[in-house]
């Protein structure tokens, strides 16, 4: 008799986007993998999210709902869901953004890749832009760590199979990330110094430093609407993206490179350039958010540093 497939707990963080979350859940109801459960962490939504998700769960498949009174951020919310999964003795956690739609075979393909070797710690799917046929959101990642800069491979490009040769990645984007229980037990959960953004980059570095490989499973497919919760280009996005970039740099970039490379890059490319555009278009709220994010990034008391 063959042993049962590993159990996967899918963790979704929701904040005020109940329609997106319900569309995501509908796609999960069609997943063909035999052993999985769903945990939704609601970060203080006031749009009726929790009631709607509970109703959906009653009609379709069970969903464990964790309610927060306030928005705790992506990293902390994800950690709540992962802690719940660990207490339930799951074998894998699949972190999934609520603005995604998955293909039915996504878990089979991700788990099959992860099960190939004990040193494969995290696996990511190929991600397409939602509603755009064959247009990639990402097919892996690459980084310039000393600039605190991550890149999504293939972003915005037509998928012609050019990224279908699986290779190691520096990190798996938190949009859709399968991680082994043993990795969680060895390196811990996401760093909650990041409210959102860069927590996946940081986590990937820690996993690789612990000896794990991070792979792409190109046959596994997720469709992503993209930055719908935070709003790409919104004041929130501008504040937290630059804040998290600086926090990451303070933790991981050696002091000489921090001063000689990161600070000039931050000032010229991540401050002067966007500030000039914002001033030209008189977007004062966005400019204030940019300033607030830079200030918070430098004064925030971080838990660890290289």
- Binned strand content: 15-25%
Quote the CATH topology of the largest domain.
Spore Coat Polysaccharide Biosynthesis Protein SpsA, Chain A
Q: What is the helix content?
A: 40-55%
Poorly predicted sequence stretches spanning 5 or more consecutive residues: none
Number of helical stretches of at least 4 residues: 9
Radius of gyration: 19 Å
Mean pLDDT: 93
- The computed structural class is alpha/beta
CATH architecture of the largest domain: Alpha-Beta Complex
Shape: globular
Name of the CATH class of the largest domain = Alpha Beta
Number of strands: 11
The biggest beta sheet is recorded as: 9 strands, mixed
The N- and C-terminal alpha carbons lie at a distance of: 49 Å
Number of domains: 2
Helix-strand sequence: EHEHEHEEHEEEEEHHEHHH
Question: What do you see in this structure?
Answer:
The chain contains nine helices and eleven strands. 40% of the residues lie in helices and 22% in strands. The relative contact order is 0.13. It has two domains: 8-224, Spore Coat Polysaccharide Biosynthesis Protein SpsA, Chain A (Alpha-Beta Complex); 235-299. It has helices spanning 18-28, 49-59, 74-87, 106-114, 181-187, 199-209, 235-252, 255-280, 284-299, and strands spanning 8-14, 36-43, 64-68, 92-96, 100-102, 120-129, 136-138, 141-144, 149-152, 176-180, 213-224. The strands form two sheets. Strands 1, 2, 3, 4, 5, 6, 7, 10 and 11 form a nine-stranded mixed sheet that branches. Helix 7 (235-252) runs antiparallel to helix 8. With 306 residues, it is an alpha/beta fold. It is globular and about 60 Å long.
